[in-house]
Amino acid sequence: MINAGAFIAVVFLVAFFGLRPMAAALTAAAKPAAVAGPSFDDVQRSLPTPDAPVAAIASEVPVGALPGTRPGATPLDDLRQKIRPAPQERLARMVDLNEERTAQILRKWAAVPEAAG
User: Fold this and answer.
1) Sign (positive/negative) of CA torsion 57, 59, 61, 62?
2) How confident is the prediction for the chain on average, in pLDDT?
3) Would you state the torsion angle of the CA atoms of residues 28, 30, 33, 34, taken in this order, to the nearest 10 degrees?
4) pTM of the model
5) How many Cβ atoms from other residues are within 10 Å of residue 75's Cβ?
């Protein structure tokens, strides 16, 4: 009796969640688009192409650029440059964290690679 009840429940769920939406999708007339907007072709044509002049892009001044800054630098880049610690401070921090590991890294960097031959 329990098996028959479970079978009926499964058949009902398959019909309700599977067959009913499928039948509704097949019989439904074409509905207008919910959001009116540009077509896919219009959007594709508005995108920049790879052969766009690079000089025009390079000559543009970024919005919000401060006078006297590097060309192409934004205020966020300048702030990051000011916040970034000096290499000496970074090395001192590495030594403070783990002296042995830092010494191994420095030895590896300083080692001259042997010529393969």
Assistant:
1) positive
2) 74
3) -20
4) 0.29
5) 12
